[in-house]
């Protein structure tokens, strides 16, 4: 990604090689990161010591008297990073966040000669964004023209503050709230060790945050949110890739293809030319699909390895109703784009033949990908997954009316014609006061994908669930751990 920046008001590059807008110096200047920010004992005690921890867990203590902590015109610094760190610590102490608004390069050697830092509430939202039609509520206005700023310029080998405006046109936050703002969040060195330990043990992010909250004495004292933990683990996973695991997997694929010409593999590469998702299928799988590929189950619920990458097997049944595999993949994520890439790759591997029916769980990203890549394939939802959620979403009805479960079972499993299902469904909603239930309304709109009455003429080889995938997942759990490297898993 090129380091091009622009002005927040004009969005144009100026003649003096001024570059700027909304670019966070955290990404620009050697990844300076205030992970711990200010250690605040309580909301009223600001103290005089600012404790900052950089990305490598190195503590930097800034101790100021009440007067020296306040920036002033003429204040000098050795490096621009020192100014950015100083003003960010000042912003943390004064309960606001800052960003880099404007940068100017010299015309001669294109070196940085001026930087303007502003409050994140500087400027105004562009009119084009205000007029944009939104499917969801418009987000709250965050830019309200705050003029608080600090400007520095290069003077020989030193950086000097040439302008300082301390006044804000809005109410400042409390220290507890400030700790949750993006500009002041970060994962500390101690938290990193704990997060990695919990992640290797298979603890999900939500529970990791719960542990961190208890260790820190509350959510406001953690210094980060769940998204920060996910980003840290994602970056850690990319670093592990760089340490050779992906290369070993690639070498294995090449060796396998030399020994077995019908073996096929595909590796998705992102814009940074880093390896992402993986797909592979052997000769036996490709041959079996040509005979038994009318029905395929497709499930991505099992996380198999140290990278938490979903394992996606393509499964079917043969004429003895035995489970057979038509290929499998490890996905970098579960987005629409990843599923589209996987389905197209898999279909090309199977000589362009699409299945008659595909069974998946109720996943929106997966549904969009199937509709685009396999438009003529009947997409059926796993009935077991849907019925399993009934007791969760309708627990109050099950507990109050003992006959409710029997009536719903009859409505779903015993109705033959679609009009019979429609009549019984409507009667149940009226009888138990469920007409306005949003979850049931959503299920009803997808009834053609899971209600047996609508699928009587669809070939499903006697299958209505992704049970084969669940059985495969259970098999892998006996041999695969959360610490299993990707190359070892594929072997």
TrEMBL record:
Q: What is the lineage of its organism?
A: Eukaryota, Viridiplantae, Streptophyta, Embryophyta, Tracheophyta
| MULE transposase domain boundaries | 296-388
Q: Which PANTHER family does this chain map to?
A: OS01G0519700 PROTEIN, PROTEIN FAR1-RELATED SEQUENCE
Instruction: Mark out the compositionally biased spans (Basic and acidic residues).
Output: 1-15
List the residue ranges of the region (Disordered).
Answer: 1-22
Q: What is this protein called?
A: Protein FAR1-RELATED SEQUENCE 5-like
What Pfam families does its record include? FAR1 (PF03101), MULE (PF10551)
Name the InterPro entries for this protein. Answer: FAR1_DNA_bnd_dom, MULE_transposase_dom
Q: What species was this sequence derived from?
A: Juglans regia (English walnut)
């Amino acid at each position: 990604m090129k380091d091009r920046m622009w002005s927040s008001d004009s969005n144009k590059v100026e003649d003096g090689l001024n570059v700027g807008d909304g670019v966070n110096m955290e990404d620009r200047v050697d990844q300076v990161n205030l992970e711990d920010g200010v250690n605040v004992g309580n909301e009223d005690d600001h103290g005089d010591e600012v404790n900052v921890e950089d990305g490598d867990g190195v503590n930097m203590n800034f101790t100021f008297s009440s007067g020296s902590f306040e920036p002033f015109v003429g204040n000098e610094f050795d490096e621009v990073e020192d100014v950015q760190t100083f003003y960010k610590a000042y912003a943390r102490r004064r309960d606001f966040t800052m960003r880099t608004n404007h940068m100017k390069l010299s015309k001669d050697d294109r070196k940085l000669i001026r930087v303007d830092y502003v409050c994140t509430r500087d400027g105004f939202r562009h009119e084009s964004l205000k007029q944009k039609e939104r499917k969801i509520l418009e987000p709250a206005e965050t830019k309200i023209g705050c003029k608080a700023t600090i400007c520095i310029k290069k003077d020989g080998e030193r950086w000097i503050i040439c302008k300082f405006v301390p006044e804000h046109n809005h109410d400042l936050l409390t220290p507890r709230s400030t700790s949750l703002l993006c500009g002041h969040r970060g994962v500390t060195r101690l938290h990193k060790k704990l997060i990695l330990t919990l992640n290797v043990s298979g603890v999900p992010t939500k529970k990791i945050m719960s542990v961190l909250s208890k260790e820190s004495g509350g959510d406001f004292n953690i210094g980060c949110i769940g998204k920060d933990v996910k980003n840290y683990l994602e970056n850690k996973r990319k670093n592990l890739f760089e340490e050779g695991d992906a290369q070993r997997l690639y070498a294995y694929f090449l060796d396998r293809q030399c020994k077995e010409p019908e073996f096929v593999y595909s590796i998705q590469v992102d814009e940074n030319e880093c390896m992402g998702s993986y797909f592979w299928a052997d000769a036996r799988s490709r041959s079996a699909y040509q005979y038994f590929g009318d029905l395929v189950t497709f499930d991505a619920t099992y996380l198999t390895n140290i990278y938490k990458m979903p394992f996606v097997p393509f499964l079917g049944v043969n004429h003895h109703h035995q489970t057979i595999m038509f290929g499998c993949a490890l996905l970098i994520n579960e987005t629409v784009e990843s599923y589209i890439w996987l389905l197209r790759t898999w279909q090309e591997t199977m000589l362009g033949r699409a299945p008659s029916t595909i069974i998946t769980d109720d996943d929106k990203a997966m549904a969009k990908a199937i509709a685009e890549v396999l438009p003529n394939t009947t997409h059926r939802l796993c009935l077991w997954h849907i019925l399993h959620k009934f007791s969760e979403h309708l627990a109050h009805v099950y507990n109050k009316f003992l006959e409710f479960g029997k009536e719903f079972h009859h409505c779903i499993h015993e109705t033959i014609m679609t009009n019979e299902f429609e009549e019984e469904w409507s009667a149940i909603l009226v009888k138990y006061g469920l007409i306005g239930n949003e979850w049931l309304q959503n299920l009803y709109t997808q009834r053609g994908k899971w209600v047996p009455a609508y699928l009587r003429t669809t070939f499903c080889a006697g299958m209505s669930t992704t049970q084969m995938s669940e059985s495969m997942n259970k098999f892998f759990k006996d041999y695969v751990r959360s610490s299993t490297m990707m190359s070892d898993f594929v072997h």
